[in-house]
Specification:
434 Repressor (Amino-terminal Domain), Beta-Lactamase, 2 domains, 48% helix, 14 helices, 5-stranded antiparallel β-sheet, alpha+beta, 268 residues
């Protein structure tokens, strides 16, 4: 199956960026060769060699040529590049191939969260909210409404709009740049899973055109799964707060993310 030109360019840019981030010495190549490099990372010829493909064929993939790449070739590339699970999933989604190690599954998105999901939110004492496939808050509980009053009370439910277009977000979110970079990497993973979604593509295009920060982070081609971990905020009423975030995918609703913030804890 041949890919559209935009998809081929994304695939090539992603592979090129990951190749440039690899160090030859980490892959068993002679250190002396690595020391004399004028360009970052591995050479194309080296990447092709450790991936078991011809240098010309690998170069064509990076260049976005009109060629078809097999699942087996992608699997070898993923292993050679030491991709994370999120990056590997993004690679196969970009190429529109099924990963032989982890078949993909899913179902179409529904418009509204179920009553049971809303009941789960309301039963929680910790701040919790539901994000849909376009990163819009679709439901939340009272603790989340208090914690994220600037966002959830703004009438603009998209988390990415709040993070990149609201000055208050840069104060409220501790270590804003690092958190914003991670959000963009998580969004890129979503676009890999849904390459033909026009609404998601429009969201990315708008963010890139309006926010220089988003455009710069997007250009890094980083890919991450939406994971938990420490989250710190500078709340306008409650001061410095630190939580442990847990992100779950509700059963039967892969389009939603259930985000729960456990705490608050003493700031670290």
């Amino acid at each position: 199956m041949l890919l559209p030109i935009d998809q081929r360019r994304l695939l090539g840019a992603f592979l090129r960026r990951r190749r440039e981030q690899l160090r030859a010495v980490d892959l068993g190549l002679p250190a002396s060769r690595s020391d004399r490099r004028r360009t970052p990372g591995l050479r194309r010829e080296e990447m092709a060699q450790i991936s078991g493909m011809s240098p010309t064929w690998y170069a064509w993939i990076e260049q976005g040529r009109d060629i078809s790449v097999s699942s087996a070739s992608l699997a070898r590339l993923a292993a050679a590049m030491r991709l994370t699970p999120a990056e590997r999933g993004y690679l196969f989604e970009l190429a529109r191939r099924r990963d032989p190690a982890e078949p993909l599954s899913g179902r179409p998105e529904d418009d509204e969260p179920s009553r049971s999901l809303r009941d789960v939110l309301n039963a929680m004492t910790a701040p919790a909210y539901l994000l849909d496939g376009l990163w819009r808050a679709r439901a939340w509980n009272e603790p989340a409404a208090r914690l994220f009053s600037d966002w959830l009370g703004s009438g603009q439910p998209c988390l990415l709009n709040y993070v990149f277009f609201t000055d208050a977000a840069r104060v409220f979110i501790a270590d804003w740049e690092n958190r914003a970079r991670r959000l963009v990497a998580e969004l890129r993973a979503d676009t890999g899973r849904r390459p033909d979604d026009p609404a998601l593509r429009a969201l990315v295009d708008r963010l890139r055109s309006v926010s220089p920060d988003f455009a710069a982070f997007w250009g890094d081609h980083a890919v991450l799964a939406r994971e938990g971990g420490a989250r710190a905020f500078n709340h306008p009423r409650d001061g410095a707060l630190s939580y442990e975030q847990v992100t779950l995918t509700p059963g039967g609703r892969p389009d939603y993310k259930l985000v729960v913030l456990l705490g608050p804890q003493a700031p670290r």
